[in-house]
Write a structure and sequence with these properties.
This protein is an alpha+beta fold. The chain has helices at about 35-45, 110-120, 140-150, 175-190; strands at about 15, 25-30, 50-60, 65-80, 85-100, 125-130, 135. It has a 5-stranded mixed beta sheet with strand order 2-3-4-5-6, with helices on one face. Strands 1-7 form a two-stranded antiparallel ribbon. A hairpin with a 5-residue loop joins strand 3 (about 50-60) and strand 4 (about 65-80).
Length: about 190
């Protein structure tokens, strides 16, 4: 789609209109419904997503910049990479995301973009996202923030790989000897 939103509707969509934000901002609370959690679990390859909640503060700034701060909590189950047993994780995240317009209308587009860059240079190291057509999907932002903080290699605290000693025993593989000889003969024929 040309408006910056994906062709498929996000599983946990909560769209706000940036131009309608009051000068003092808004406070938003979101909780994913069971069908949204099931769809997100599938998307992020989790066994289950038991809960996903967000408490957000949304504040407009200069040059249509919108800052979102708050907390995300989630409880989900994924497989331990060692034992392949289910492992429950409780995640608590503090977020600080800045949304900037994808493009500026008008003849002074370059100066507005430079001014926005200067404003962002003074900002702390938060995530910077773009939005278009005055729409910001806070639900999708929450889902993405959760996703990038999921441990890709979850491991139960007591899970251990079996000890392996390298070099203690040499195993001969007769099939590879023939390959070695063929490669040696090939090198000799090149000379």
């Amino acid at each position: 789609m040309s408006d910056g939103f994906p062709d498929v509707a996000p599983e946990f969509s909560r769209v706000i209109t940036a131009a309608r934000l009051p000068p003092h901002g808004i406070e938003e609370s979101y909780e994913a419904k069971p069908d949204e959690r099931a769809a997100l679990a599938k998307r992020f390859e989790l066994l289950r997503l038991d809960s996903l909640k967000a408490e957000l503060s949304v504040k407009p700034g200069r040059l249509d910049i919108v800052t979102v701060t708050g907390k995300i909590t989630a409880t989900f189950v994924q497989n331990c990479v060692v034992t392949l047993e289910p492992l429950t994780t409780r995640m608590k995240l503090d977020i600080d995301v800045t949304f900037v317009p994808a493009g500026q209308a008008g003849g002074n587009k370059q100066s507005k973009a430079q001014e926005a860059d200067e404003d962002l240079d003074d900002a702390p190291d938060e995530d910077i996202e773009t939005y278009s057509k005055d729409r910001i999907d806070l639900g999708e932002m929450v889902a993405q923030q959760m996703a990038v903080n999921i441990d890709p290699y979850p491991r139960k605290p007591d899970a251990a790989l079996p000890a392996t000693e390298f070099g203690s025993k040499v195993v001969k593989m007769p099939g590879l000897g023939g390959l070695r000889d063929a490669l040696k003969n090939k090198d000799k024929t090149k000379d």
